[in-house]
Amino acid sequence: MSVLEIRNLHATVGDTEILKGVNLTLRSGEVHAMMGPNGSGKSTLSYIIAGHPHYTVTEGDILLDGESILDMEADERARAGIFLAFQYPVAVPGVSVANFLRTAVSNVRGYTDGNGNGSMSGGVIGSNLMPMREFRRELNSKMQEFNVDSSFARRYLNDGFSGGEKKRTEVLQMAMLEPKFAILDESDSGLDIDALQVVSDGINKLATENRGFLLITHYQRILNYVKPDFVSIFFGGRIVKTGGPEVAQMLEERGYKWVEEELVGGLVPA
Amino acid sequence: MSVLVKEPELMDPAPVMAVAADFSEEGVRALSASRNEPGWMLDFRLAAWRRFEAMAWPKSTDESWRRTRLTGFDLKNFTAYATPGATSRRHELSPLLQSELGEMESAASLIFQDGGVHYRNDNPNLAAQGVIFTDLQSAVQKHPELVRQYFMTQAVKPDHNKFTALHAALWDTGAFVYVPKNVTVELPLQAILHQNPGLGGYHHTLLVAEEGSNVTVVDDLLGGVDGMQSGVIELVMKDNTVVRYMNLQDFDHSAWNFLTGRAVMGRDTDLRWIQVSWGSRTTKAFLDLELNGPGGHGELLGLYFPTGRQHIDHQTLQIHNAPNCFSDLLFNGALKDRAHNVYMGIIKVLPDAQKTDSFQRNGNLILDGTARADSIPGLEIEADDVRCTHAATAAQVEDEYVFYLMARGLTRPQAERMIVQGFFQEVLDRVPVESVQHKLERVIERKIGG
Ligand SMILES: Nc1ncnc2c1ncn2[C@@H]1O[C@H](COP(=O)(O)OP(=O)(O)O)[C@@H](O)[C@H]1O
Ligand SMILES: [Mg+2]
User: Which residues lie near ion ligand 2 (Cβ < 5 Å)?
Assistant: First the structure.
């Protein structure tokens, strides 16, 4: 049982403050949906949790099981069990899904030989790789399970992938990396119904009791497939309301205009 | 090798053995005599030497030499040519050469050192098919008619430039490959040059593929400490031939390297030429595809990765002389430290070459702000129904890519390495011999790390 806690998080990019006091506690086994309009800072929050170096945290903290992760590099956070499914995964030409994932999985699972020797000796971490056969077997079975065609193992990471293929590959990577906490940044946007079904099925399979999900979304749609325990509304760089699934329903009916007038009006000093 | 009995017409008043290797007409004569060459080859060398002397050294105002300077280059710093030693048996070879041989499964192999053959592994099956794979010096003796017909007569002529003239006068090592009509050589033919320190070297690859033949040749170029190499590649492809050619240059970073290569391609030919320039302090390479028959398909793919203060310059020409040909050029390289890369390329389409389909791309990945890449693409088109495109890109390893990979658990060095390796992959994927692919991957990994 783990806890990811975000405490009064303020963050800036350049001179602009984007996060203005985010508070959120996510426990293993929970699915927490976070809904908010474009530009409200959802991706920024997810990047900061994952350790993107471009943002500066000016106040507050992020704790994983009581320990601050703010000083950790992105890769250390990944190895500590944090996974971010990107809203816009970048294409990396020439790097095959299988090759990349084998290195990632080996690191996250701690395949190291302790003395920095190995085919990828960039320090001790990554000095040893998961045995090819074992890796292949697991990748193949997970590709089947998560509806990713086996040809994708050899394809270059996100290179020429459709929007849906990218999102599915993100879910596959999550399945391989087995994180404690997964932040899914609009994994549902831009998908047709079939693709949404596949991605949702994947999330549901992975939503076990020892894993927590922060499901960031712009639309209520995905919540027909993935049932959240909590729903928060994110607006202007902070959470303005948290409740159960009924909050999503309310938002669906009344729209962000209601949020602005009813919730933010009273909360944010002009 | 010692001087053999000389034919009377080769008699020369000067004492042959005693002359120190020298950049002079006497030097040329001595070299030719020491190889016991027939008179026609001596005449060829002498004519080339005179051309060399008559030609001016490149100037920084010459378009080809504007970005690649010869500052610090002086023939006086090199022994004009090497004196070959005895050949070795496999177990006597240096570990480096043993591993070079062991890396690849080849049909036959040759190692050159000190201006001559250091090791040879002949294949009687090839000879039975009429395939010739031997050193050029032996070819001059055993197949003079073929050498006279093809050596620097069709693809690269002695007066192509100052360095080809020098080469023609002093050429020493290199393979002669002759594949008869309709013969397919399944495994690659491998020629390795290991150049010892301080020497001038003039490596030559002459490939003649007769109609309907199919062959793969790999040239490995090593050594060259404080030396100079002025090489020539000639690929003569008759109709319906398939050639895979790899030139893997990994000289010491103190070597001056000049190279001129051209493929002359007949009807319905299919060429893939991989040009790798890892080593040398300075490389200036002129590489041409000449498509002379309809239906030709030529690919010229380059890789480079200069580090430190290396300077690499490839100048290419895709000449379309015939209709319905396809040529595809892709040169990709990464640059580190204070390295400098130059790529200049022209697609030239002559009036008869309608329906030409031609590409030219150069991609640079700049790993340090102190490195520099110049890319000068060009088109000269005299036919109207053609499709020609060229593109040059210069990119850096973007933070967004590094972050994406790190967010999946890769360390920063791993992420950067993977992105750089990935950048080379498009060309690596097209390297036709798997063991060569792996070898190139290892060099890239070494260069990223070092
Ligand atoms: N790197 C950046 N530089 C400048 N502004 C940024 C940067 N990243 C995000 N922003 C700004 O921060 C705000 C929040 O963006 P984002 O987190 O992407 O919102 P969301 O994901 O909710 O649509 C936007 O106004 C955006 O323009
Ligand atoms: Mg977003």
Answer: A 42-43, 87
CB-based contact B263:B290 (threshold 8 Å) = yes
pLDDT of B182: 98
A130 within some domain:
yes
Residue A53 lies in a domain: yes
CA distances (Å), B107 to each of A103, A266, B89, B132, in order? 36, 82, 18, 12
pLDDT score of B21: 60
Supply the range of the domain harboring residue A84: 3-89+181-262
Domain for residue B366, yes or no? no
Backbone torsion region of residue A31, taken as left when φ is above 0, otherwise alpha when ψ lies between -120 and 50, otherwise beta:
beta
Which of A10, A17, A19, A43 has most ligand 1 atoms within 8 Å of CB, for mutation? A43
DSSP code per residue over A76-96: HHHHHTEEEE-SSPPP-TT-B
If one counts every other C-beta atom within 10 angstroms of the C-beta of residue B75, the result is: 12
Do B419 and A95 lie within an 8 Å CB cutoff?
A: yes
Q: Report CB contact under 8 Å: B405, A104.
A: yes
**A85 in the same domain as A27:** yes
Which of B409, B411, B426 lies closest to A93 in CB terms? Answer: B426
Residue A215's CATH number:
3.40.50.300
Q: Give B-chain residues touching A100 at CB under 8 angstroms.
A: 405, 408, 410, 418
Cα–Cα distance measured from residue B138 to residue B175, given in angstroms and rounded to the nearest whole number: 10
What is residue A261's predicted lDDT score, i.e. its pLDDT? 83
**pLDDT at A263 exceeding the cut of 60:** yes
Q: What is the pLDDT of residues B260-270, one digit of tens each?
A: 999 999 999 99
Task: Tell me the pTM.
Answer: 0.89
For residue B430, list chain A residues with Cβ-Cβ distance below 8 A: none
Same domain assignment for residues A11 and A82: yes
Same domain for A205 and A253, yes or no, is: yes
pLDDT of A189 above 90: no
Q: What is the mean pLDDT of chain A?
A: 91
B286 and B402 in a common domain: no
* Number of structural domains in chain A: 2
| A138 and A247 co-located in one domain | no
Where among B239, B262, B293 does a domain terminate? B293
In a domain, A45, yes or no: yes
CB-nearest to A126 from B401, B407, B414 is B414
Write down which residue in A130, A160, A190 finishes a domain.
A160
Q: Which domain holds residue B431?
A: 397-450
Instruction: With beta carbons less than 8 A apart as the criterion, state whether B126 and B108 touch.
Output: yes
* Residue showing tokens 């017409």: B9
Residues A81-126 pLDDT 10s = 999 999 999 999 999 999 999 999 999 999 865 444 444 444 456 6
Does one domain contain both A117 and A231? no
Q: Across the interface, do B423 and A78 touch by the CB < 8 Å criterion? A: no
Using CA coordinates, name the residue in chain A closest to B411: A75
- CA atoms lying within 13 Å on the CB side of residue A43: 12
Read off the pLDDT of each residue in A24-51 and give the average, rounded to a whole number: 97
A interface residues, B as partner, C-beta within 8 Å: 50-54, 73-75, 77-79, 83-84, 86, 89-90, 92-95, 99-101, 103-105, 107-108, 120, 122-123, 125-126, 156, 173, 177
Q: How far is B419 from chain A (nearest CA, A)?
A: 7
Domain stops at, among B293, B313, B333: B293
Domain shared by A15 and A144, yes or no: no
The tens digit of pLDDT for each residue in B104-157 reads 999 999 999 999 999 999 999 999 999 999 999 999 999 999 999 999 999 999
* Residue B376 resides in a domain: no
Asked if the model's pLDDT at residue B378 lies above 80, the reply is yes
B409 touches chain A (CB under 8 A): yes
B60 token code pair: 């920084």
- Strand runs labelled E in B252-296: 256-265, 270-277, 282-291
Whether A154 and A108 map to the same domain: the answer is yes
Mean pLDDT score, B331-349: 98
Q: Which residues of A touch B405 (CB under 8 A)?
A: 92, 100, 104
Domain contains A174? no
Please indicate, yes or no, whether residues A47 and A84 belong to a single structural domain of this protein. Answer: yes
How many domains would you assign to chain B? 2
- Sort strands B282-291 and B256-265 into parallel, antiparallel or unpaired: parallel
A77/B422 Cβ within 8 A = no
Output the ligand 1 site: residues, CB below 6 A: A 13, 16, 18, 36, 38-44, 54
Percent helix, strand and coil across chain A, each to the nearest 5: 35, 25, 35
With tokens 């002086």, the residue in question is: B74
Q: What percent of chain B has pLDDT over 90?
A: 95
Of all residues in chain A, the percent with pLDDT exceeding 90 is: 80
